[in-house]
Amino acid sequence: ISDQKPLGCWSVKHGQILTCPVVCNFETHEYIAVHDDKVLRIWKNEDISLDKAFKATLSADVHRIHSLPQGGPVVLFRGGAVRTLDVLLEAPQQEIENVISGEVIRWSGAFMEGQQPILIFTTEKDGDFFVYVQKPKLSSLHKYKLEQQESAKPLYFTAHITNQTVTLLCLYSNDSVYQVLIPLQQDAEEEEEEEILSKSLLLNLSVSGAVLKGTSLVVLDKDHVAVLGSLAAPGKEPRECLTIWNTKFQTLQTSKELPLGTSGQLWCYEEKFFLIHGKVLTVIMYKCETSSLAAAVGKLKDSQTPDVSSFVNWNTLEDEELVVSFQSQESVALKAASRMNLRSRRSAVAEEQPETLSVGQLLLNLKDASTYVLETELKQLMAKAPTPDLQATIGCVVTALTDRCKRNPKYYPQNFLQQIVETRDLSYSLCPDLMAVALEKKDMHLLQTCLERFPDIPEEITYACLKAFLSTSEAHLQSIDVNLDSVVCYIDVEFDNKEVKTEIVENGFSAEMDQDVCDTKMPKESQSRSDGESCPVGPQKAALLNAVLHSAYTETFLLPHLKNLPARQAILFLRYLYYLYVKCSEKVNTTLPGIRSPTINQIMDWMCLLLDAHFTVMVMLPEAKELLSNLHKFVRAQVRFYSELNKIEGSLRELQRLNHLRESQTYSIEVLEII
């Protein structure tokens, strides 16, 4: 998430449906999924096809799989039965009993109590709600009935276990949170009569006349809960908010409005909130500390801002325009990694709040400042002593500059932006609009630097850069400043910027030995242009294309964009990749000289990608026929050469061993027979 890079993608066949959330087995580092209710799939990260993954068809429908860090996966069936994954895999077709009858599972959760996994789920039948507590390893099952309440029903559940007691929190439709305590039974026998659970009011979700219509509830610690919902105030439009409440003192600790809307779901894992805000996944880090009455009611001594928000540092969420953009069209992206501290110590608040406000306030104040004042103030801001959030501050600086570029098309601080990218450790996620502005301004040098330095560039932007580089004329590129460090050591350039052709002797490749391979007769001039002996692009364009080769990508997400590349540009790019491939093959270690030169693996990967995306088109185009033929001959010669090397590998090792045994001062003639 921190790099905004998709790492893997797996899909079921057409017509199949994933019927419960996929989980990770923490012990084996495997993924577990269920499709079409009964078909279990298990695979690892390196597996490419889900269709070839482990498959087991079960005898009953699965409701959900829960994975515990130390207890392994636990499977809950729709009939209420529970099995550990290990037991289930021993006999996938084993009979699964029905624990519930006519009831629908509304919520479930898995927990560890000592060494025992415990699964808790709630069901509904005819307006009545029931709670089941199961210990699958001990075959222990206990059923309870939830105390009814007139004119209100539970909407959402969550739970935690402390000191052999289950604390079940219920979010009700009357805008209240109730608490139910369930002691864990030690006996393994089922109870004949269900016990009725009484509940107690924990929290009213209202403050100053405004009522929160909650949709999701998570427990942060023993004194704090987070509720996602819609806050409705008299005479105002309801607005979606993420709120944090102090259950000990019945107060709203802090809230944050989410203007782009949410999916109504809130997840919490390892002190991080996960929620969908608009079209992006927002991740918010938090830290809970011991609550106090003064902190809960906003009355910390000497506090300059008595409202509750002073005790939470939302950091980059404070100014959405300058600090973090929620307008990205990326389907999954980290747009906020914010620290939220529930603090009770005055010193912590006093130290953190002014610094955060100073950066945000400075950027807001500079929105309408002159160009000279803006750049001067921003340079002074970056020149300050290093702080833990200096990188985020510099990202804010770049965002402020790109915002001004979008508001004023005539403004573009090319040298300033280039200096920041070259001297600072930035990433795409810190300044997501920078490369879009550079593409609009056709700033090839800045795009080259970003491609070489940013680890998290989306595949869509990588493709846009590739298309821009290939479509720009050589004459225009010769007039701009481009870093040629990656090409000067293997492309010889004359004063007229035309490459000097040099003799090439490839490892294992001879044009004569494969003359009979292809019946296609090629004109001599055409062959010299496409057989890899001369670079098909100028040094400036070659350096820019090398930057694209260095950019990280995921094949699944790049391929759809690459298919949109115009055919002639695709052929030109393939010619350059073929040229690099031949150049690499000249060297014994298959490594190009120079700084940040492409590696043989990068070249081969991109050649395969390009052929996958455009093979049908290239086969149809006459101008690509010679290139594909030469590429085929060269690759086959390489395979043949390495195959011959493999045949004499044993003899070469024996010769190397004899060289070590031979005394350096003696003279001898030896005959080695290679079979």
Automatic annotation (TrEMBL):
The keyword Lipoprotein does not apply. One of its GO terms (cellular component) is nucleolus. One of its GO terms (molecular function) is RNA binding. Keywords: Activator, Nucleus, rRNA processing, Transcription, Transcription regulation. Residues 1-287 form the Nucleolar protein 11 N-terminal domain. Pfam families: Nol11_C, NOL11_N. Residues 361-673 form the Nucleolar protein 11 C-terminal domain. The keyword rRNA processing applies. It is found in: Nucleus, Nucleolus. Its main location: nucleus. One of its GO terms (biological process) is maturation of SSU-rRNA. PANTHER family: NUCLEOLAR PROTEIN 11. This is NOL11 protein.
